[in-house]
Amino acid sequence: QVQLVESGGGVVQPGGSLRLSCAASGSIFSFYKMGWSRQAPGKQRELVATITSTSITNYVDSVKGRFTISRDYAESTVYLQMNSLKPEDTAVYYCNANEIRSGINYWGQGTQVTVSS
């Protein structure tokens, strides 16, 4: 079973950038499709970006051109580079790992991102 630990959240002004990291351990990194989701207060959790084991990426329309998901196999880490941040990007961001064989999802504890002037 994989364990996920996120880091890199914080407070940033509109137009700024942040990079989130998610370190995976306890299992073989390539067994998982990785993703980032977010949940704003009073809203449902939203899938933001995913990356397959062959590094094919997908994004929700609202972040296309601003966010970039990547994965480092040497470090067993997935990243979310967030540029041109907007107040509506404010949320708790969660890393998830979807086990390709079983379809089981694993989640990290979340990291807060606040975009405010």
Description:
The chain has 117 residues and is mainly β. Helix content is 0%, strand content 53%. The chain is built from no helices and 11 strands. It has strands at residues 3-7, 10-12, 18-25, 32-39, 46-51, 57-59, 67-72, 77-82, 91-99, 105-107, 111-115. The strands form 2 sheets. Strands 2, 4, 5, 6, 9, 10 and 11 form a 7-stranded mixed beta sheet that branches. It has a 4-stranded antiparallel beta sheet with strand order 1-3-8-7, with no helix packed on it. The radius of gyration is 13 Å and the shape is globular. The chain starts with a strand and ends with a strand. The mean pLDDT is 95.
What is the gyration radius calculated from CA atoms? 13 Å
Helicity range of the residues? Answer: under 10%
Distance between the termini: 40 Å
Strand portion: over 45%
Mean pLDDT: 95
* Shape descriptor: globular
Number of helices: 0
- How many distinct beta strands? 11
**Secondary-structure element sequence?**
EEEEEEEEEEE
Question: Major beta sheet, specifics?
Answer: 7 strands, mixed
SS-based class: mainly beta
Spans where pLDDT lies below 50 across 5 or more residues: none
